[in-house]
Amino acid sequence: MPSGQTTLEQVLPLLQVRIFAYDCLRRTFLGEPSKEFLRTVSHEGFIEGFPFAEDSALIHEGAENVSEYLKNQDVLSEEVHDKLHWDYTRMFIGPYELPAPPWESAYLNKERLLFQEETINVRRAYLKYAFLPKDFGHEADDHLGLELDFMYQLSELAEAKVSKQDIGGLVEVLRDQKAFLEDHLLKWVPEFSKQAARHAQTQFYEGMVKILAGFLELDLKALEELLDINV
């Protein structure tokens, strides 16, 4: 980022890239893949051009995994669609022991219990922005898909602050995103990603968890650069 005076409009492209990335990632991990989502990611260049892929070996490797899978499998067929559903279900839902539980507390809580202090801390971050998870009270707030959805919502809010020329509001949102990355996602997603990549039965999820881990790491740097801009 340039160190001189920068207009708010000049930071928009990076903000919009972050919206795109978090939208893709939240839709990947919020639930089993819909055919609509699979049709979207199958578009030529969608995964290959994932943000920051040229700056991250992990994102690049993950994108290659997903791209190869999409080229060799008809993901809209019932057979392949069912395989992807099962891969998501057995890793992230059950009914058997989960190889890669998708909750923050499963990695940071000694007893690996849900709805503990870790969950409450995540809820506090949500409440500042009146973010109420869809299945509040039934799904733990620290589910990966919900944490990514929160980052997506704040990314959209940051773009809205630029439209309103609200520099102070933009800085506050970006600082809160940086804090959420450091205090939550980056504390457990790297380990989650390793476990999920190891146990995935499809290249699709093997690749997507690599993309996830690589993107979060570089997004922290992007936020640091955005907060260092003189506007």
UniProtKB/TrEMBL annotation:
InterPro entries: DMSO/NO3_reduct_chaperone, TorD-like_sf, TorD/DmsD_chaperones. Gene3D superfamilies: TorD-like (1.10.3480.10). Keywords: Chaperone. It comes from the Bacteria. It holds the Pfam family Nitrate_red_del. Coiled coil: none annotated. This is Putative component of anaerobic dehydrogenase. It comes from Desulfosporosinus youngiae DSM 17734.
